[in-house]
Design brief:
Layout: H1 24-29, H2 33-43, E1 51-57, E2 63-68, H3 79-97, H4 112-133, H5 137-157, E3 209-210, E4 216-217, E5 220-227, H6 247-255, H7 257-272, E6 278-284, E7 290-296, H8 302-311, E8 313-316, E9 333-335, E10 340-342, H9 353-362, E11 370-383, H10 388-397, H11 414-428, E12 475-477, H12 486-501, H13 509-513, E13 529-533, H14 544-601, H15 604-607
Antiparallel strand pairs: 1-2, 1-13, 3-4, 5-7, 5-11, 6-7, 6-12, 8-11, 9-10
Length: 608
């Protein structure tokens, strides 16, 4: 038996001996040059998996291969592109959060040419109606062609949208199964509180507050919405009792969480009476249930936010899934003659999607198959513009947008891995849409049924292990947040760099009109270059390492020029401030001297 060592008297650890020079261990300890190249590329923001594009000048016929960024939004695919996308989203949130003016101006008045085209379209519509009444179908066909040409002219003239829906029996994108449009009752549930409804004003900015000292300020808010509890959980997010944890409800809530968020903003706008704007991100909690962080322009009472969250719900009117009639080992089979899925034993066709919905409509006591609600935890607080708290909140909102949903919280223990597997297995059996193959497990043929359906293997994003039910958009930004799209924000960043470097226009044809040019060197009026994807085995496409080194060198020179331009701009602003301060100082001396002369001579009126 070995005697225990007293605390504090343990022997010092023996340092590991250095590997013998020239040995395999010594060689493996050396860093790889390829990894160092990718690290430097990530440091300079160079895409590590660029797309080789061949650009052909349509005027001269010159062809060259140019590397374009892949534009990935996930770090596991391309870290530099994902970080660039994250900074772009942060700039978008920052620009629209604390605005004090409306981001989108009203539409311009229509021109006389546009009004004339609309009037001509109205005349054609009147003539078509008269031809239909008179059963002159040959004239109807001619008028339809004339209407199509007029609508093309209306779009070319610069008007948005359609004047009216197109004529015809059905569009190409309509459902194959004819029938009436299904309507559900809009009466609120008895177990949900009522909300006041006000007429929504045409404003998106918040309220202005006045301090006791007379200063005014316009704060905004940060909001977090979570789903309900499915059972008690531990600090690591795993359930205390996995057998009693409601994984089925957790899977259905995750699939329909985007619809619940849409309902919340609709109810909040109707309750508050103004067009509330938001920008946020959906991400999983440690218990793997989705929740959302939002930046809200303006302020809303916290009691109102909690009341609206408690009164918001989304009902899923789908066929019942209480009984799973088939398993993955015993599935329905496809019948070519009947063009339908049939029972493997009786060969009877399964219930069609239309028949299943008709049964719900005919049942007066029918209930929705699932109801999604928020949990009681609603976190909201105010944020002042231009503070460190605002920047910290923006970074928090966009913290996980460069990661897969399943990678936001790493499973490090067996309990966490088993919890993730249970939720994923339930998601594999949960229908995601009306066309999901999983409906065959419950004896219902999905919409637009075909023979290639594989229950339990639906390709929808909600069924994937790396999404965990969050299959929709993770970035949620309202239409009038900043008045710009991501392409507009990219253009603003590019224009800022060019203005700082003094190269805002191209020296070619674009320079004559004074317009900004894109990366292809062409203006919006004229396409000068043709682009096509180059193959990796093309002789003019070099190795990836050579292309990365050229991009790193180019990006390093750009960074040097940009830093030098910033230093010049800062030096120029400091010199201008010093000049203005000196001029103001001399002006005060001159004014004081002239004031003494005026007083000595009887005042300035005599000099005038």
């Amino acid at each position: 038996m070995t005697a225990p060592t007293l605390p504090g008297l343990e022997p010092a650890p023996t340092p590991a001996a250095a590997p013998r020079p020239g040995s395999r261990a010594a060689r493996m300890a050396l860093p790889r040059s390829v990894d160092v190249l990718k690290e430097i590329a990530a440091e300079y923001g160079v895409c590590v998996r660029p797309l080789a594009m061949r650009r052909t000048d349509l005027d001269t016929g010159l062809t060259e291969v140019i590397d374009l960024p892949c534009g990935a939004t996930r770090e596991d695919k391309c870290g530099p592109c994902a970080k660039k996308n994250r900074r772009l989203r942060q700039a978008q949130i920052r620009e629209g959060w604390h605005r004090d003016d409306e981001p989108l101006p009203g539409p311009e008045p229509a021109t006389e040419e546009q009004k004339a085209l609309i009037l001509l379209r109205a005349h054609f519509e009147f003539a078509r109606d008269e031809a239909c009444r008179a059963s002159q179908y040959d004239q109807v066909a001619d008028l339809d062609e004339a209407i199509r040409e007029v609508e093309e002219a209306i779009a070319a003239e610069g008007l948005r949208g359609r004047v009216g829906p197109p004529h015809g029996s059905a569009d190409e994108d309509s459902d194959d199964e004819p029938g009436r449009r299904r309507k559900r009752s809009t009466r609120r549930r008895q177990d949900a509180p009522d909300l006041p409804r006000r007429k929504v004003e045409r404003r998106t900015v918040g309220k202005i507050y006045t301090a006791p000292d007379g200063s005014t300020f316009r704060p905004s808010m940060w909001l977090t919405l979570t789903l309900d509890s499915y059972g008690p959980v531990r600090p690591d997010g795993t359930p205390v009792n996995p057998d009693r944890y409601d994984y089925r409800r957790a899977a259905w809530d995750a699939v329909h969480f985007p619809r619940l968020l849409d309902r919340f903003w609709q109810n909040l706008r109707r309750c508050e009476g103004w067009n509330v704007q938001y920008a946020g991100c959906v991400e999983p909690q440690r218990r793997l249930a989705p929740h959302a962080h939002f930046a809200i322009r303006g302020t809303i009472p916290r009691d109102v936010l909690r009341t609206v969250a408690a009164a918001t719900y989304h009902q899923v009117w789908w066929p019942s899934v209480d009984v799973q009639r088939y398993t993955l080992d015993r599935l329905p089979v496809w019948d070519e003659q009947a063009t339908a899925w049939v029972d493997p034993d009786t060969h009877e066709p399964l219930t069609t999607w239309t028949e299943a919905l008709d049964a719900i409509d005919d049942d007066p006591d029918a209930e929705p198959v699932h109801v999604v609600r928020f949990g009681s935890q609603v976190d909201a607080r105010g944020v002042m513009p231009g503070t460190a708290d605002a920047e910290r909140t923006i970074r928090y909102v966009t913290k996980y947008i460069t990661k897969h949903t399943g990678d936001c919280h790493k499973a490090t223990t067996d309990r966490q891995r088993k919890h993730l597997d249970r939720l994923w297995q339930q998601l594999q059996l949960t229908p995601c849409t009306d066309r999901c193959a999983n409906w065959l497990l419950y004896g219902v043929q999905p919409k637009k049924v075909h023979a290639r359906l594989k229950p339990g293997r639906c390709k929808g994003k909600v069924h994937q292990r790396d999404t965990l039910g969050i299959g929709g958009r993770r970035i949620l930004i309202s239409r009038e947040w900043s008045g710009k799209t991501l392409a507009d924000h990219k253009h603003d960043a590019r224009a800022w760099v060019r203005a700082l470097l003094g190269a805002t226009t191209d020296s070619g044809a674009a320079g004559e009109t004074g317009q900004l040019v894109d990366d292809q060197g062409a203006t919006a009026e004229r396409v000068r270059h043709a682009w096509e994807l180059a193959r990796p085995d093309d002789p003019d496409v070099g190795p990836l390492s050579h292309r990365l080194m050229r991009s790193i060198s180019e990006r390093a020179r750009w960074r040097t020029e940009l830093l030098a331009a910033k230093d010049r701009a800062a030096q120029g602003s400091s010199d201008l401030s010093a000049t203005q301060h000196s001029a103001q100082h001399h002006g005060e001396d001159d004014n004081s001297g002239r004031g003494s002369d005026h007083r000595a001579s009887g005042g300035p009126d005599q000099h005038e």
